[in-house]
Design goal:
- This protein is an alpha/beta fold and 341 residues long.
- It folds into two domains: 258 residues, 3-Layer(aba) Sandwich (Rossmann fold), CATH 3.40.50.300; 72 residues, no CATH class.
- The chain contains 13 helices and twelve strands.
- An eight-stranded mixed sheet has the order 6-7-8-3-9-10-12-11, sandwiched between helices.
């Protein structure tokens, strides 16, 4: 509790302001991230949850400035990291920060690691990009990094190739690469995807330990609300490119406000209850080319939908201290009139 109180007083390490990220499809721009704003404090773990297609990974790639060139672009907004606007930096300046001060663990370790280079070569490349270090020193540090993420026989593994390692070991290598230069902010995009339950628990425990030892901030993108409950201080719930709810982790689980959040929590299997069918959310997330331009984007799937939900766009508002929700159910008539104006 004392840690959470201290976090509230600190200036943010990362501040995203009204971010809009679009993709060019047949000559038209479609927003995958739409007017998203949030902050990450030093040493804070912020979870980002939502179904596939809600804009979570695109948001992280926007922060890393890794959008596919010619297809994706940041249309508007600001990304302020450690007091610096990343959007105003040159490619060389971004390269000096990316992999050093901000680092990322990507979803698929097999495709993220280059199959034709050894593990040691890829670790050393990260070190060479940001530090003046000899080859022998880089090799020693690579072995130490592998050992730090719980890989046994690191002196041998450093000379092996990705295909020779299990999924869990490849994910540990990805973590070692991400923390090689002791970043201030680590973005972990579905770090336990395709791993079995036992390995998932080990990887999450490792991430938590590394975060505490290195005083890092972490943005943890996941579908798994169980992971959020174990790992995070604050949670952002995204739907169709927008934030629909944001609060601390305890409040989200014990007092969710947005109908989408409530349905997500309701879909978690419960070991102490016998049910013939799992709860599901009817319908699917709208595609980029079929995104509603007005109203609440969840309205067509929402069990609490009202007629005005189709015509009035809810804004993210603080409904209780530290608890923000974008839903007309929690807006007064005067606030809704302000939206219309």
């Amino acid at each position: 509790m004392s840690t959470k109180k201290s976090l509230l007083k600190e200036a943010p390490l990362l501040e995203v302001r009204n971010l809009e990220t679009a993709f060019d499809i047949d000559g038209n721009d479609y927003n995958a991230v739409d007017k998203v704003s949030f902050k990450v404090k030093p040493r804070q773990i912020v979870g980002v949850v939502g179904e596939s297609g809600c804009g979570k990974s695109v948001m992280s790639l926007s922060i890393m400035q890794l959008l596919p060139k010619g297809i994706g672009k940041i249309k508007s907004g600001e990304i302020i990291f450690d007091g610096i606007n990343l959007e105003k930096m040159s490619e060389n300046q971004i390269n000096s920060i990316r992999g050093k001060d901000i680092s990322m663990i990507f979803q698929e370790p097999m495709t993220s690691l280059n199959p034709v280079f050894s593990i040691g070569y890829q670790l050393q490349e990260v070190l060479f990009n940001h530090t003046k270090i000899s080859k022998s020193e880089a090799r020693l540090k690579s072995v130490a990094l592998l050992k730090s993420v719980g890989i046994s026989r690191p002196e041998k593994i450093v000379d092996e190739y990705p295909h020779q390692l299990s999924g869990g070991m490849r994910q540990r290598v990805m973590i070692a690469m991400a923390i090689a230069n002791q970043p201030k902010l680590l973005i972990a995009d579905e770090p336990t995807t395709a791993l079995d339950v036992t390995v998932q628990a080990q990887i999450l425990e490792l991430l938590k330990e590394i975060q505490e030892v290195n005083d890092m901030s972490v943005i943890l993108i996941t579908h798994d609300l169980g992971v959020v409950a174990e790992m995070c201080d604050e949670v952002i719930v995204m739907y169709a490119g927008r934030i629909v709810e944001r609060t601390d982790v305890d409040t989200l689980f014990y007092n969710p406000k947005h109908p989408y959040t409530t349905l997500l929590l309701g879909a978690i299997p419960k070991m102490d209850e016998e049910e013939e069918r799992l709860s599901t959310i009817q319908g699917i997330v709208p595609s980029l080319t079929n995104m509603p331009t007005v109203g609440c984007r969840f309205a067509h799937r929402c069990p609490s939908s009202m007629p005005e939900c189709l015509t009035e766009t809810p804004l993210l508002r603080e409904v209780e201290q530290g608890h923000e929700v974008a839903c007309l159910l929690f807006e007064t008539s005067r606030q809704r009139e302000g939206v219309r104006k």
